[in-house]
Amino acid sequence: MTDETKTLSEDEQFAAMTTGNPLFGENNAGGPPANVTVTEEGADTRVDDAGGDTASAADDGQDGQGAGDGTAAQPGTDGTPAAATGAEEPFPGYSSLSPEVREAFDNVSKERRKFENDYKALHGMMAPTQRQNAELRRQHDALSARIQQLEQLERTQRDASAAKDEALKGLEDWANQFPEESKMLMALVNPLRDKVTALEGQLNAARAELGSLSTERQQAALEREVSALEEQHADWREIHASPDYWEWLNRQTPGIQALNASMFAGDTIHLLNLYKGNRVAAAPAAVSASVPATQTGTADAIQQRRTQALERGTAPTVRGSESTGKPGENRDAALTDDDAAFLQLVGDNPNFR
Fold it and tell me: Are strands 43-47 and 53-55 parallel, antiparallel or unpaired?
């Protein structure tokens, strides 16, 4: 078998393998991908997008001339820059793909960029919520620690009370056995007992005052939140009592519904902004419907008088509603702006003279 027969057999096998492959395209079946340089027996062969072969090998003199003047071979068969270089392609070999595959890849890339932008937007919207969650978590940890401290204090007081009762019972038994000695001891113990009782009363009063201060602080914080809410939405109480508001809220996502239970004014303000924006978008014809019917009737009457004046070729006699028709009265003062402009227009037109 000669080299030529062997080469033809390999080409036929390569053509059979590449036929129907989208990477090689319909016009390039049986050949290497476009813009790929194949070196065979020392000769460079460049295959363009149409599938044709262009011999780029030159003799030794031409090679020497190209190396001597410092010029380099330009991409493409005609010496012009290639349509897409490696730096501009999303990945190597992108330009070798068929148009359908490139279009599908571009669509997927657009969807990916859209998802990335949506994720960034959602992440930005979640930042305030994350800060609020961190604050609530801190408050929860503080309350949990306080509860554990109170439980420990209660256990200590209960144990101390039991020990006190047991000691008093033992002292009473000892006093029954030794009356004289117990009188002397009680004379020393009673003043101490009175002091302890007074200290307990002071401690209870301090606890009550501390609880009152805590309640006042909570009330002041709540009033600040309500004041901030009223600055943005003075009608929040009416909205909260409206059935339309609750119907709208029930149609929202759980994340938006959770804002209604928040104690922060910022969450409630954001929720009411969404609600009012939805109402404005749902009623685009509210502005046009608010035009009084009397104004519409007046405009129609003026237009009718103008049409009749144009048909007769004379200016209409327009009298305002406040004109009494008395001699010497300034009737132009009762004219509307439209009537005055129309009278000036027909007064300058010779067809109405």
Answer: antiparallel
Mean pLDDT of 292-312: 54
Half-sphere exposure at residue 303, Cβ-oriented, CA atoms within 13 angstroms: 6
> Sign (positive/negative) of CA torsion 260, 266, 269, 271?
negative
Residue 179 included in any domain: no
**9 domain residue, yes or no:** yes
Distance CA 259, CA 128 (A): 12
- Our CA angle for 200, 203, 205, nearest 5°, is 110
Range of the domain at 339: 304-319+332-353
Q: 96, 119, 154 — which closes off a domain?
A: 96
* DSSP code at position 36: E
Within a domain: residue 45? yes
Structure confidence by residue, pLDDT tens digits, 189-225: 888 888 888 888 888 888 887 777 777 888 888 888 8
| 37-70: burial string, b at 16+ Cβ within 10 Å, e else | eeeeeeeeebbebebeeeeeeeeeeeeeeeeeee
The partner residues of 46 in beta bridges, in order of sequence, read 37, 54
For the chain, what is the domain count? 2
